[in-house]
Design goal:
- The chain is mainly alpha-helical and 408 residues long.
- It has a single domain, classed as Na+/H+ antiporter like fold, CATH 1.20.1530.
- The protein has 18 helices and no strands.
- Helix 7 runs antiparallel to helix 11.
- The longest helix is centred in the middle third of the chain and has 59 residues.
- It is globular, with a radius of gyration of 26 Å.
- It starts with a helix and ends with a helix.
Length: 408
Amino acid sequence: MGFLDLFVVALMPVLKVLLITGLGLFLALDRIDLLGENARHYVNNLVFYLFSPALVVSQLGETITFQSLRSLWFMPVNILLTFIIGSILAWILIKITKTPPHLQGLVIGCCSAGNLGNLLLIIVPAVCEESNSPFGDSTVCSTYGTTYASLSMAVGAVYIWTYVYIIMRIYADKGADSEDTDINESITDSESYKEALLPSSKNSGSRAYSDEDELPRTISGGKLKIKEKILQSVKKFTAKINLKMVFAPATIAAICGFIIGTVSPIRKLMIGDSAPLRVIDSSASLLGETTIPCMTLIVGSNLLRGLRKSEVSASVIAGIVAVRNIFLPIIGIGVVKAAHHFGMVESDSLYQFILLLQFALPPAMTIGIIAQLFGAGEGECSVIMLWSYVVSALSLTFWSTFYMWLLQ
């Protein structure tokens, strides 16, 4: 296929996303108020607790087998690489732009965590359904594409609620500590100024002797065993992990989907036209079909907050947009091509296409939820999301076209 034909194939899904996203933004306006704050809350809960898990478990259960697992093992590794490389680029961006401490965790989160669920679940099936799609039969492509996207969403949720959650929590604590330190320093400076005007009650010689006497005792008594230090580090690390969020409904659904697909007796009971319990799988699929339109509407309604906030520097926004739309997609080509060269990824063009897209997605909407939890940069996050998704409308079209051309 020519580059122009591939461009049209890539453009159609993005246009669909833009139209439904725009509709979601329109419905969230105060004059319409069909997707106001309360409505968004309820729809978000339905998507999070019901629709998304139903889609994940039905798609994984129908298509995942022991044989297919052999070709999918690299996807969690690929997603982890997007997080690590994005974090490194974010650290460089923070140093260049001198980002304020309370926003540094937000910048790392936006650069490292892409929208691994919502957009892939929208774009991949839509690409497959195009008449001139390069991925073969539309039904087979859509089934496997949705499975890959569902697995991506589940793995991405685990990484976001462990890796990104911990980083944003650490930086939120640092930002709060720095503010407290500034306040305390101003108080201490005034107190020390007063104390400097008063005569000291102890002479310098006795003070020096006391310090020297305490030094050996402090060194000998302050030593901790290596084992105790390791245990303390582990405790601090685990204390920052929100296990409730790690085992989110989509993650639990992914585990159930793997069990249904790989355990032969269960698979025979639930999957297939002659399965006795096929009605359960059919019901889950029916619920799962509502996930994509609901997700897209919510994305649009959430972007409305970005139009009402502007408390973030243009350099930070431009840097995040550049990382997610230029640097990461280019690096992703090298990662996936190297993995294919060394035999870690099979010659499945659809699978490679999704691995490449994982590097080119805008920031995950979950970052806004985490920012809200810690009360650090929630308004700034809305602005970042707004501009990131505006730019991604163009960049996703370009990168999708280029990736399909590259995989021909």
